[in-house]
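Exam revision sheet. Question 4 asks you to relate a sequence to its structure. Input first:
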Amino acid sequence: MKLQKAVKDESIFVALGSIILSVIMVIVFFVLHRVFPERVPMDLPVIIGAVGGCAVAIGNFFLMAVTVQKVAGIENYDQAYRSMQVSYRYRTFLQLIWCVLTMVLGFINPVAGMLPLLWPSLLIKGRGILNGVKN
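Answer key, structure tokens:
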């Protein structure tokens, strides 16, 4: 299966945006650590959480986009619906496993690990709002 241009473009947009937002998040952690050193950590677990969470978010979005492309070619509605359900279930389970790992493993900061899971949704909605304002 060849990736469609729209899947590539959206995946690149989400990947770059997620990376940029994760870097901004780490910078915010750093600034908050300078102001509240006893309350806000700025250490390796923050970086590991940011990188891991960003990777999970980007991977989840890419798998969703590929699934939508695949399902668009299925003519049987029930089969297409089941394929989307299975994809959603596995992708949600993957994110749940990541969230549990961030809470259980001491070398991953939970906040820095889970916050990037929100980036793809925020990026897509933000772009939609900006495009709506322009038009």
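Marking note for examiners. The chain is about 80% helix and 0% strand.
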